[in-house]
């Protein structure tokens, strides 16, 4: 039987929150429909942070109301705290993601709290969410390095992961927020997690391609046994508080790699590229994903031949 | 003792031959000087193909005459055939590279000969070059797939590699000409070569990033034991006969990865980025390499802070 990999799509949240353009809710809902049709089963659609923090996602409730009726798809929303969770519950989303950083400086700049304060608050948010029957993911940012502090000891993120999973989180997403990770490090970090008793089945890898290493990191994690990866269609995204961060790991580049390896993703590469076309038109700038760019060129040449 | 990797820099040949802009010899010579100062020890500087085939490199002899006096650096030039080799010898280059394709269609389109005809001609070119005391590399294109023919059986490139090495070539460079390779395939191909008795020390990997897999392929090859990789500063380059091909594997992205892993490259990442800046200015377009883009952004922010 073919191996499978889980792709967790973040373009509507991590992607859009880092674009200058603010898309109308209708456009986001259209993209969500496309993503479902393309075969994505985990789609992070918005964030219930304060609207004035991230105006790009201020229409969170409206987006959630417009999501397709797809019982086999998990739609996720980011929640920063109890207030955000309340808004998410009211909107009726079934899957929420908390976030904090393994680096003190990054966490302070991101949410104006110490890591310890964030952890205490989020443990309660996780417990409440689980009590309400939601699925919970907990992002840990800057696991592989911090633009402000440099290297981040594995112990720091590992302690946070352990505590959040103990509090009831279903999975942790290890974030390379500023794209500093390299493949040997990825394997080292995952080994430490596994040695500490956290199974790979409860870990997703969230890479950014700032320095070009995202797909190499995905491959390294895959060889170690990781089977869940975050990606963004056509590589949209970054981190507004991390200077220089380029896009997320590009979904289509991962799809191409896994398709070629005979690993089942459940997602149609062509359909993902069509979603990328729509995003590119909406955002009004060429997007960084490599495969999408190749695909656009190939289509152009095919049209020229048949014209 | 730290491990080392060999980076073979192709921006002045594979990079420039795929750009619309034609740079003056003076600019190329300046770049060559910069590359030497940055620490590169293998630099492919030009091609002795017919000038009207690749007008971007029509000034081959002039470029070779202007190269810095650097006895510890190997300067390489591409030679298509005996006529090209004669021109290369006359110009006084010490290291030459032949090329042919493992795919019949690609070879026909590239040099208008069958693979068999190319092989016979190149065996003689290799022997002559070795007789003249030159070092010889033999490129094999489309090892990992062909845009026209699809998958290319490993046996085909393996037979060519074996014959070219038997004829006296010092190394073969396995080309993923159109960027179709994926990491699992890279390991599979290398295994087949090693099983056939070709040592990794005589193989260099020449990846293109068309579909975003270049650095993942480099990492995969590294884990298998390969220690020589071709790259292009800031990802300039492609293949004029392969539709859709984007740039070569980006040198700075590789440098970042190897630096972080503690692997010695001998090349200064910052100096490579400065060479990339110069190339970007000369070519008049943003270059695709990720690390270089990140580095430009970081520098801009640093200047804004101190302004």
Architecture overview:
Two copies of one chain form a homodimer. Chain A is of the alpha/beta class. Chain A has one domain: Aldolase class I (TIM Barrel), CATH 3.20.20. Chain A contains twelve helices and eight strands. Chain A has an eight-stranded parallel barrel, surrounded by six helices. In chain A, helix 4 links the parallel strand 3 (74-78) and strand 4 (95-101). In chain A, helix 2 (25-38) runs antiparallel to helix 11 and helix 8 packs parallel to helix 9. The longest helix of chain A has 17 residues, at 115-131. Chain A is globular, with a radius of gyration of 18 Å. In chain A, 56% of the residues are buried. The model of chain A has no long low-confidence stretch (mean pLDDT 94).
Can I get a quick summary?
2 copies of one chain form a homodimer. The first copy, chain A, has 307 residues and is an alpha/beta fold.
Topology (SSEs and partners):
Two copies of one chain form a homodimer.
Chain A: E1 6-9, H1 11-15, H2 25-38, E2 42-47, H3 60-65, E3 74-78, H4 82-91, E4 95-101, H5 104-111, H6 115-131, E5 135-141, H7 154-166, E6 171-175, H8 183-195, E7 203-206, H9 214-224, E8 228-231, H10 251-261, H11 269-283, H12 290-306
Parallel strand pairs in A: 1-2, 1-8, 2-3, 3-4, 4-5, 5-6, 6-7, 7-8
**pLDDT < 50 runs, ≥5 residues of chain A:** none
- Which outline of chain A best applies? globular
Major sheet characteristics of chain A: 8 strands, parallel, barrel
The CATH homologous superfamily of chain A is named Aldolase class I
Q: Tell me the radius of gyration of chain A.
A: 18 Å
Order of helices and strands of chain A: EHHEHEHEHHEHEHEHEHHH
CATH uppermost class of chain A: Alpha Beta
What kind of oligomer do you see?
A: homodimer
**Cα-to-Cα separation, first versus last residue of chain A:** 43 Å
């Amino acid at each position: 039987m073919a191996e499978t990999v889980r792709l967790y799509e973040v373009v509507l949240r991590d992607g859009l929150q880092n674009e200058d353009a603010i898309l109308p809710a209708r456009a986001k809902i259209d993209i969500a429909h496309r993503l479902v049709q393309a075969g994505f089963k985990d789609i992070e659609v918005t964030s219930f942070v304060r609207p004035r923090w991230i105006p790009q996602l201020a229409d969170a409730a409206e987006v959630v109301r417009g999501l397709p009726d797809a019982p086999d798809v998990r739609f996720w929303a980011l929640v920063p705290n109890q207030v955000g969770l309340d808004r998410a519950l009211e909107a009726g989303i079934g899957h929420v993601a908390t976030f904090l950083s393994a680096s003190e400086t990054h966490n302070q700049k991101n949410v104006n709290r110490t890591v310890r304060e964030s952890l205490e608050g989020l443990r309660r948010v996780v417990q409440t969410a689980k009590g309400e029957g939601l699925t919970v993911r907990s992002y840990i940012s800057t696991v592989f390095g911090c633009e402000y502090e440099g290297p981040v000891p594995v112990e720091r993120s590992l302690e946070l992961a352990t505590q959040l999973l103990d509090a009831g989180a279903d999975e942790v997403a290890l974030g390379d927020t500023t794209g500093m990770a390299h493949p040997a490090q990825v394997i080292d970090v995952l080994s430490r997690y596994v040695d500490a008793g956290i199974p790979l089945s409860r870990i997703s890898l969230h890479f950014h391609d700032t320095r070009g290493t995202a797909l190499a990191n995905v491959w390294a994690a895959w060889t170690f046994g990781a089977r869940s990866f975050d990606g963004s269609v056509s590589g949209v995204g970054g981190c507004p508080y991390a200077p220089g961060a380029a896009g997320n790991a590009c979904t289509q580049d991962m799809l191409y790699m896994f398709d070629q390896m005979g690993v089942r993703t459940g997602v149609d590469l062509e359909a993902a590229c069509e979603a990328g076309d729509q995003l590119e038109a909406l955002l009004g700038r060429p997007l960084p994903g490599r495969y999408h760019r190749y695909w656009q060129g190939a289509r152009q040449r095919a049209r020229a031949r048949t014209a």
